[in-house]
Design brief:
This protein is an all-alpha fold and 417 residues long. Among the domains are: 168-277, no CATH class; 280-417, no CATH class. The chain is built from nine helices and two strands. It has a two-stranded antiparallel ribbon. Helix 6 (282-307) packs antiparallel against helix 7 (322-344) and helix 6 crosses helix 8.
Length: 417
């Protein structure tokens, strides 16, 4: 492509035009007249191009240079937004390219993506294309929740099925293996609770808590309710002795948190070991308890998501409603009435009472953990289970339900049998 000669004319320099010596952009101090002195040679010798010779009375005088007499006066002026004139530009021979217009098509006016067309009327509140941007309220790539309750339902259902298989298969195939499931579950629950209470500044001894929790469940399995209470006392005492090794600073705060964890997780959960170790029908007792809790959670979720309007405890759990509570009690009562009648030959109304009691206990357990999490400032105990949060977020209902189920089944089943 040919180029313009900035100190010559507007002609393109090609192969048929000899190269000319470019004029100096600024005169040398020794040769130029004006402020640097007067040169004895004619002014024409200072410029290779005759057209760039100084005008009479311009460079030969002692006054300042005017705009037309400056050495760069031959340069084409640059215009705002256009550069060189269209006729003088080197690319003037190229046709302009417009978006969406081919070489054989008519030129169409280009408008912005969010500008309404000539036949379109702007709709108030309508967001046109190209105007939606990511901001603090909606970050890039944000997706809507899969469920109305704010949970990822496919992941929650998958994890729930896996948890049910991990519980029921050992329970029915080899019941003593269920003790290992309980020990592992309560060990993880103690770890999650200890991790959560650290946000309040409490430093609980983790080793004696986990060891005491496993000991408590094991003693309940082999020795009954008295051993369950003894295991709790041993756990609290061992935690106190372990904590004294770190000094007495904040001792009361740490022991209070450790005692809460020991009662909440291994002691209440130890009643599941009492249910499972019942001779002859331990696996069925655990089954009807878990099924009642599942009916309660499912009925509460379905009723609350579709009909929930009146909050039950807005300061503790804003998503719980009285409509959801009614759904929980109704579903658990119906399911337990049928299940206890089929498995234990218990009258349906006693089965309904069992289901309602389990549902109330499960809801109270859920509210209790919600209150603990709100007090600690955490949403979930951990992120161990996708769609559920932590393991304690699934055990909260069960931990309050198993003591209730143990006491009611001790009364209902032997009395009817």
């Amino acid at each position: 492509m040919s180029h313009l000669d900035p100190y010559g004319g507007a002609e393109a320099r090609g192969v048929d035009r000899p190269e000319r010596q470019a004029s100096l952009p600024w005169p040398e101090p020794e040769l130029a007249p004006g402020p640097w002195g007067r040169d004895p040679r004619p002014a024409t010798e200072l410029h290779a191009d005759p057209r760039s010779q100084p005008r009479p009375g311009g460079m030969n005088g002692r006054r300042d240079l005017d705009h037309d007499e400056a050495p760069t006066a031959q340069l084409a002026p640059v215009r705002a937004g256009g550069g060189l004139e269209h006729e003088e530009a080197p690319t003037a021979q190229f046709a302009p390219v417009r978006a969406g217009v081919g070489p054989d098509q008519e030129e169409a006016p280009v408008r912005a993506a969010d500008e309404p067309g000539p036949d379109e009327q702007p709709t108030p509140g309508k967001r046109h294309r190209g105007r939606r941007r990511a901001g603090a309220g909606r970050p890039v790539g944000q997706q809507k929740s899969s469920g109305r309750a704010g949970r990822n339902l496919p992941a929650a259902i998958s994890v729930g099925v896996c948890l049910a298989a991990a519980v029921l298969l050992p329970l029915f195939l080899y019941t003593p293996a269920f003790l290992l499931v309980l020990a592992a579950a309560f060990g993880i629950g103690i770890w999650e609770m200890s991790r959560a209470v650290r946000r309040s500044g409490a430093q609980v001894p983790l080793v004696p808590l986990i060891a005491g929790g496993v000991l408590t469940v094991t003693m309940a399995w082999f020795a009954g309710p008295d051993a369950l209470l003894l295991g709790l006392l041993v756990t609290v005492a061992g935690t106190m002795v372990w904590r004294l090794g770190d000094g007495i600073a904040n001792f009361r705060r740490d022991i209070t948190a450790a005692t809460l964890i020991a009662v909440y997780v291994p002691f209440l959960g130890g009643f599941a070991a009492l249910l499972a170790s019942s001779p002859g029908d331990g696996d069925l007792r655990v089954l009807v308890t878990l099924v009642a809790v599942v009916f309660s959670d499912t009925g509460g979720y379905a009723a609350g998501a579709n009909f929930g309007k009146h909050p039950m405890a807005p300061t503790i759990s804003p998503k719980k409603s009285w409509e959801g509570f009614a759904g929980s009690v109704s579903a658990a009562a119906l399911g337990s009435a049928l299940l206890l009648w089929l498995l234990f030959d218990v009258a349906p109304w006693w089965g309904a009472v069992f289901g309602m009691a389990i549902s109330v206990a499960a809801v109270l357990g859920d509210l209790a953990e919600s209150m603990i999490k709100r007090d600690l400032g955490v949403k979930d105990m951990s992120n161990l289970l996708p769609g559920h949060g932590g393991l304690m977020d699934r055990l909260d209902s069960v931990l309050f339900a198993v003591p209730t189920a143990y006491l009611l089944l001790v009364v209902f089943v032997p009395a009817v049998s």
